[in-house]
């Protein structure tokens, strides 16, 4: 039993270290051929948004909004791939179940349950 607890503690420490590393990495997503760029941390937290002047048409703000959303989604998809690569089997622990709690901004947006089930 003590060995199992020790393994769980090691996994939790590994998860915390990996999350810290992910928090320090940034990825950039783009849309509209680079007209809009969104930068997020490896955890998926938005840290920057760059909009080219050519994308800002006052007569068509809906397209600009779509480009912003697409760039953020692209960046978050890259962050999620980075999480999967970095965390490997520990990724499941960081998505609500297990010891690590939730990864901020991570996961696939699925349901969360009280008590982490």
Automatic annotation (TrEMBL):
InterPro entries: YbaB-like_sf (IPR036894), YbaB/EbfC (IPR004401). The keyword Cytoplasm applies. The keyword Coiled coil applies. It holds the Pfam family YbaB_DNA_bd. Keywords: Coiled coil, Cytoplasm, DNA-binding. GO terms for molecular function: DNA binding. Residues 1-28 form a coiled coil. It is found in: Cytoplasm, Nucleoid. Homodimer. Belongs to the YbaB/EbfC family. This is Nucleoid-associated protein KDK95_07295. It comes from Actinospica acidithermotolerans.
């Amino acid at each position: 039993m003590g060995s199992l607890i020790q393994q769980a503690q090691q996994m939790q420490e590994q998860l915390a270290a990996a999350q810290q590393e992910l928090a320090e990495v940034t990825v950039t997503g783009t849309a509209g051929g680079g007209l809009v760029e969104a930068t997020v941390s490896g955890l998926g937290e938005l840290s920057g948004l760059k909009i080219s002047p050519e994308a800002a048409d006052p007569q068509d703000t809906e397209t600009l909004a779509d480009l912003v959303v697409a760039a953020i989604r692209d960046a978050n998809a890259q962050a999620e791939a980075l999480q999967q690569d970095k965390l490997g089997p520990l990724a499941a622990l960081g998505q609500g179940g297990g010891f690590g709690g939730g990864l901020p901004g991570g996961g696939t947006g699925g349901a969360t349950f009280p008590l982490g089930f």
